[in-house]
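DM between two lab members

TW: hey, do you still have the 3-hydroxyisobutyryl-CoA hydrolase entry open?
JB: yeah, one sec
JB: this one, 390 aa:
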Amino acid sequence: MNAPGAIESPVLFEERTANNGKRIGIATLNAPKTLNGLSLDMALLLTERFDAWAADEDIALVVLQGAGEKAFCAGGDLHGLYRSMRDYRESGASDVSSNAYAAQFFEVEYRLDHRIHTYPKPVLCWGHGIVMGGGIGLMSGASHRVVTERSKLAFPEITVGLYPDVGGSGLLSRLPDHGGLFLGLTGALLNASDAIAAKLADWQLAEADRDTVYAELLSTAWKDDEAVNATLLADLLGGRAVAGEPGPFQRHAGHIATLCSGNDLDTIVATIRADTSDDPWLKTARDTLAAGSPGSARLAFELQQRARQMPLADVFRMEYIVSLHCAAHGDFQEGIRALLIDKDRSPHWNPSAQKEADARWSEGFFKAPWADGTHPLADLTDTVTQRTFA
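TW: and the structure you got?
JB:
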């Protein structure tokens, strides 16, 4: 128990010993008041411990979860990024990599996400409640991804002037029938069943079964073989999985494919905004697009076009460059201001119209600020992957 007035760690770590002596590492995001939003400190702590557990032969698997009943992780540190963007612009700097906080935050976050994708041991992510943005970044690379009856997943970055990052460009680009583009443009919410259909989760389990599942983890005879352990874990989870009702993403798949057909973003955006469906989910989606940043829509589109055939590490390297530009001169600061700082919900987007945010406008966001070979994520490799990204 912490002493009175002590500050709890933003990530809690524990190890539990299974019956055969193998241990299970459990990492709990511990900031429920901010819906476990991922801060730089949290990402650094997770990186350090994940590295230690990877090197420990007696750790059979790792569990990643969030504290509280509301969220696994609702995103990243928008307040910290806002302060860094404000200070950067007030300084008059022109080098997009000179915002030290943003540069470090995105590097550490993307490295951690890539680490989970390429982790040598099974990773069980229990994605209960809200899982958005940076939360999907943590969850998406886990080898075993669980959602519950209260899970709500989304990439809502268009509302704050960013784009679906944390590998989202690659994840969404691989969905069939333009489903990923629709999610990136509209920030549409997915329930558990839809999250599985969108390949962002693997099993739906009842939240009430979490403690039982964890107890079964301790009674399992884990081996020294990671592949065998991955199968054991999959069998355990599959035995308790439930089939959820198809959500609106599945029910409207054909309609989404029609809305997002073609290769011209302006036409796609206009078609979605002109849709007359009275379905509440579709209406919310088109309203979100209409109120969102036109620049974010363009970047989401261009990134998915480029990421479709990219290896995972290249996706993160590309996103890192674009994110630095977004922090330096895009709509990101204005979107956070309108949503979280002044809370007027009246952002002044620049460009203000979709036709102004054309492909030529977006080209500068892909320009690296370093010489060849000096990218901060140049050393990322995909020699070992938990789940195929191609």
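TW: got it. The chain has one domain: 11-366. The radius of gyration is 21 Å.
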